[in-house]
Write the structure tokens for this entry.
Amino acid sequence: MDDTHISLAHGNGGRFMRELIREIFQHHLGNPDLDINTDAVTLTIPGSEIMFTTDGFSVQPLEFPGGDIGSLAVHGTVNDLAVSGAEPLYLSLNAFIEEGFELALLDRLIHSLAEAAKESGARIVAGDTKVVPRGHGGGLYLATTGIGRRLSPLKLGMENIEPGDAILVSGSVGDHGTAVMLAREAFGLHGDIRSDATSVLPLTRCLLDVDGLRFMRDPTRGGLATVMHEISHATGFGVRLEQSSIPIKDPVQSVCDMLGYDPLFLACEGRVVAVVAETAAEQALEYWRQKADGKDAAIIGRVEDTHQHVVLVTELGGERILEELEDEPLPRIC
Amino acid sequence: MDDTHISLAHGNGGRFMRELIREIFQHHLGNPDLDINTDAVTLTIPGSEIMFTTDGFSVQPLEFPGGDIGSLAVHGTVNDLAVSGAEPLYLSLNAFIEEGFELALLDRLIHSLAEAAKESGARIVAGDTKVVPRGHGGGLYLATTGIGRRLSPLKLGMENIEPGDAILVSGSVGDHGTAVMLAREAFGLHGDIRSDATSVLPLTRCLLDVDGLRFMRDPTRGGLATVMHEISHATGFGVRLEQSSIPIKDPVQSVCDMLGYDPLFLACEGRVVAVVAETAAEQALEYWRQKADGKDAAIIGRVEDTHQHVVLVTELGGERILEELEDEPLPRIC
């Protein structure tokens, strides 16, 4: 393959496509279960139960401080399995590549994707590429679908949540959304804000031992505030957050203040929100703080027997209702 | 949801997105295994073995005579399982929707997708939507990932192919590619050419009873000729096709002659190519001809102990080497 950029012929089913798949995708993703000559792969599953999830990725820019669309496409799907109490086994990968895309960049992104998959213990076992004409894509869109294995008989879910339960977050919020925004826009702002994007498996695994764990979720699109609304919608209970307890890095807060964003609505890609019984909150917090990615973990609020409100108790002791996201066109952060 | 078109807010994680997912995706795709409030779904699998495949879809136009991107997104993945000797159980769905996309059209396409899934017996159990900015998409891109169950202990694969084996096709070739081309381009040509897109499950199921079945594949991107090249590459054997035996509809041939395309390279989305032992060829043909979608089935050639060539014996008895697709930017037909 002696070209430097993607052409429509890389999507036509012929020699160019075969070489693209072999020299970039198979080259980086190769593993004993990946067979690029087959229509469907046969997989052996431990037991007769699997967990299944899918996620699409259209982040801009494709590379940002702390990650890129390749690693994000693994972390997003791995994390959906992780917060469901599972570990990933197998992933499929779809790539929509725009004509004119630089092959060196594609190679870098798929390499990064492969590294993230290896770290999380997941194998890419099925894939497909489509080439879309110049002007009909954002460079590269990815979609991954994951098959996982439940790590605990515990059935986690919002239906387990009860009034009085504590709400925890594993680290600072809004880092990913802010890092991507700064990388994209020409705000003239520079700093060392990095995305928090990573696999949350170490954080979710250790919480499965906590008696009283109800529910976990990674606060991606819509951020921490949106997860709180999801809990409130699904349970009919209220949520009360203590602003002073929510970890937000100073540079993230400063950038958000300047640009008019609320970090509570900005995406994280490496954090976990957990709801646990009140009696188990301190233990969960301790487990998290022992982990590298959990040292800033905090108990940030509780579930209340009030009707469907998300209330933020401000640092001055006032209360403010945290509204649901409406028509804000938030940046493409995942 | 009182809007008529997709806005960026439909992708932000908040209320608009929740309503879009509920009112279009859940509305059409709803089934007992689909839970839009969960990160990963728990699935029960018969046995401890599954088959797994994925496919992306970027066809233009989104609706064409005989199908649309919605039904195609189901048929493409269902057919990859079918030709592998499996039946589909579960599907995941990713949608990349362009800002400004008409909601009525989205509703129609997802309805069509749901109908195709029902017909094939597959349940959509996981999904994700992303909204990309105006000018950064082709309206709608879809990706589906399928989990299936093997219907027979037979391990189909190109490694089973032997010299002397017969090659069959289940119906006329090039219909889908030609129909999509005519629907897109302003050639001023009109006719009743319809896509052949459909589930091939009835065709693959009945062939599993044929003793001597080696391999099946659906000739999509790159068409029949590309499947022949794949066989030749993988086995090291040659392939000899009889032009006069290959079913091609007259209007398809006429349009291809006018536009300079070879129907052997154009996509089918509802045909099967099968390789069977010579002694089983007539039985396979009979099974197919009993099916509605197999009445034009034909034995079109054989595998030969020559080195990696795809040879077409012309109607006049001459021979021509069928080259592999190179840099032809073929129309976006899947």
